């Protein structure tokens, strides 16, 4: 059974993945398992399309919350789960199987983790990572071009029409519910150290 569940949210490009990697590095893989909501996007053909026929992945409906909830419940009950890595429709990469074993600390990471009613009462600690809009788009461009093989026009269209609208409606409002808010316009090293001290004390 997990002793503590940590939720990590914030805008696209806020640094959620970097935060989680550093926490795991400091606390040890034997103590932390990570359940990323990114791996629960529905297939592209099941996504909502905008008025121009473009898929909108920046809506809560883009996530298969039922499958996510089942896997999270299994982890909480001490059951190891296996999921397919989501590659954001990159045709040049092959998804791998991800094995997640229950650990003392479970981190749930993703843009919508605080929005779903199914997860409303599961968190012992809520961490919200804040970033300015211009830094968000710079990081998003860099990641999409290098890691996801998206053309620049695709990323700019998504950001202008989907990403920041979704952020304002489904992500930003939950900053008020967070236990810890981290400003990551530059770095979050000190914040991570403080959080890890607390988590160590729990386990």
Describe the 3D structure.
The protein has 203 residues and is α/β, with parallel strands linked by helices. The protein has five helices and seven strands. The protein has a five-stranded parallel sheet, with helices on one face.
What distinguishing features does this structure have?
203 residues, Rossmann fold, two-stranded antiparallel ribbon
User: What's the CATH first level?
Assistant: Alpha Beta
Label the structural class.
Answer: alpha/beta
Q: Mind telling me the CATH superfamily name?
A: P-loop containing nucleotide triphosphate hydrolases
Number of domains: 1
Query: What Rg is obtained from the alpha carbons, in whole angstroms?
Result: 17 Å
Number of strands: 7
CATH topology (level 3) name: Rossmann fold
* Total of DSSP H or I helical runs spanning 4+ residues: 5
The low-confidence runs, each spanning 5 or more residues with pLDDT under 50, are: none
Largest sheet, spatial ordering of strands: 2-5-1-6-7
Q: How do the SSEs run, as a string of H and E? A: EHEHEEEEHHEH
In brief:
This protein has helices spanning 16-27, 65-76, 133-146, 152-171, 189-202, and strands spanning 4-10, 32-36, 81-84, 97-100, 105-109, 125-130, 180-183.
Topology:
Elements: E1 4-10, H1 16-27, E2 32-36, H2 65-76, E3 81-84, E4 97-100, E5 105-109, E6 125-130, H3 133-146, H4 152-171, E7 180-183, H5 189-202
Parallel strand pairs: 1-5, 1-6, 2-5, 6-7
Antiparallel strand pairs: 3-4
Helix pairs in contact: 1-5, 3-4
């Amino acid at each position: 059974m997990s002793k503590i569940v940590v939720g990590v949210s914030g805008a696209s490009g806020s640094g959620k993945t970097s935060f989680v990697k550093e926490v795991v590095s400091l606390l040890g893989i034997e103590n932390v398992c990570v359940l990323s909501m990114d791996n629960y996007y529905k297939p592209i053909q099941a996504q909502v399309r905008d008025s121009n026929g473009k898929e909108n992945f920046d809506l809560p409906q883009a996530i298969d919350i039922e499958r996510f909830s089942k896997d999270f419940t299994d982890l909480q009950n001490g059951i190891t789960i296996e999921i397919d890595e989501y590659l954001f429709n990159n045709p040049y990469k092959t998804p791998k199987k991800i094995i997640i074993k229950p650990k003392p600390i479970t981190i749930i990471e993703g843009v919508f983790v605080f929005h779903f009613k199914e997860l409303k009462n599961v968190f012992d600690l809520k961490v919200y990572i804040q970033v300015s809009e211009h830094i968000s788009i710079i990081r998003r461009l860099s990641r999409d071009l290098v890691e996801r093989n998206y053309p620049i026009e695709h990323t700019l269209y998504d950001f202008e029409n989907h990403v920041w609208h979704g952020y304002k409606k489904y992500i930003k409002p939950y900053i008020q519910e967070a236990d810890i808010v981290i400003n990551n316009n530059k770095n979050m090293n000190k914040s991570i150290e403080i959080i890890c001290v607390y988590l160590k004390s729990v386990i």
